[in-house]
Specification:
With 361 residues, the protein is an alpha/beta fold. It is built from nine helices and 15 strands. The strands form three sheets. It has a ten-stranded mixed beta sheet, with helices on both faces. Strands 1-2-3 form a three-stranded antiparallel beta sheet, with no helix packed on it. A two-stranded antiparallel sheet has the order 8-9. The longest helix is centred in the middle third of the chain and has 21 residues.
């Protein structure tokens, strides 16, 4: 029968099996702080939560004005340290960053309400077609996460969903002005530290691939309106629209990128950033050259985002997961899937510190 004793911020758990083999597990309830991520140490039974610098990311502070520390959970600190050493040894010239957009680069909660996604914020100025797209969402979204449908069948369903949605955007007369107005009115914001991360990676010449099954034109507009600047090292791998001279949507470029093919294979489908956003010259804009960068820092908010690096023969990948909600039920699966898991809609400052320690000035 298990027995648990608490003292000094540590739970000591004793458990004996039928053969009287005793397992002792120490679980620290006091967060451990490290001046440097490279000073990580681990115990084979350690489940301590590791705290990196940064604060919980909230726009509307609570009445006490208190910002809780952002917790980062590391399941295997020895493996993480080996990966960090490998990235540091190879240098920034071998690194690329692959990031999901919604709820990864952007905040999950804003003023106590769920932030909008880049796809969900779109209002095409035609209520009839907005309603039709919402009906498609209600039908297909449960199928996307159904445990009883095979991946092959889901892929067909997602292609069907995305194709119908894109057709409705064209038929409903979506304009580029409607995109601008939708973004301006949207409840969407970047995590604290995202700008610092982009600046640091740009300084180091590290390409950033933003993967999204949504719409590249909307993501670009969010970057314009919310960050008010461009970054030459950023490329968006997403569905891109084609507008006529009057600013009306007429078609989409390339093959459709949906939730189940959002990975390195999609690089061949994606168009580069618009010129006005600071398109990339040379190696960063070349898919083949990007693939030669065989170390990956992957940022995502869903376990499925780990597939974004599929198709890339990487040497070392450090995966960072943002567990924004439903923490109690999801922590174990996230901790086993990602190298680092940030909890409670954390800021991006921990990732900024990680990169700075990888490649100090």
């Amino acid at each position: 029968m298990p027995h648990t004793k608490k003292g000094g911020g540590v739970f000591i758990r004793f458990q004996a099996n039928a053969q009287m083999t005793v397992r002792v597990q120490f679980t620290s309830t006091t967060p451990l702080r490290f001046a440097s991520i490279f000073n990580l140490r681990s115990s084979p039974f350690s489940t301590s939560r590791l705290l990196f610098s940064g604060r919980r990311n909230v726009i509307g502070m609570d009445k006490e004005g208190f910002l809780q520390p952002a917790e980062a959970v590391v399941a295997d600190s020895d493996l993480l340290k080996k990966k960090l050493d490998a990235l540091r040894f190879s240098g920034p010239q071998k690194l690329q960053v692959i990031a999901d957009f919604d709820a990864t680069l952007t905040r999950y909660w804003i003023d106590g309400c769920r932030g909008q996604t880049s796809h969900g914020l779109l209002k095409q100025g035609n209520p009839e077609y907005d309603t039709k797209r919402d009906e498609l969402y209600k039908y297909y979204h449960p199928l996307e996460y159904s445990p009883t449908i095979s991946i092959e069948e889901k892929t067909k369903l997602m292609e069907e969903w995305w194709g119908k949605s894109h057709s409705l955007l064209i038929e409903g007369g979506l304009t580029f002005d409607a995109i601008k107005q939708s973004v301006a009115a949207a409840t969407i914001a970047f995590r604290e530290g995202v700008v610092e991360l982009f600046e640091l990676l740009e300084e180091k010449g590290v390409p950033v691939l933003i993967f999204s099954a949504g719409l590249a034109d909307i993501i670009e507009e969010v970057l314009r309106q919310k960050l008010h600047r461009s970054f030459k090292n950023i490329r968006i791998v997403s569905n891109r629209m084609v507008f006529d001279d009057n600013g009306c949507l007429v078609s989409f470029k390339g093959k459709t990128i949906h939730s189940l093919n959002k990975n390195e294979h999609a690089l061949d489908m994606a168009a580069p950033l618009h010129d006005q956003l600071g398109d990339v010259d040379g190696a960063i804009n070349d898919s083949a050259s990007v693939r030669k960068r065989t170390n990956v820092l992957l940022l995502g908010d869903h376990i499925g985002d780990l597939g974004m690096s599929d198709g890339l023969n990487y040497d070392t990948r450090i995966s960072v997961g943002f567990l924004n909600d439903n923490i109690e039920n999801s922590l174990d699966s996230y901790r086993n899937a990602f190298d680092i898991v940030y909890l409670n809609d954390a800021s991006m400052l921990g990732v900024v510190k990680l990169v700075r320690q990888l490649f100090p000035v």
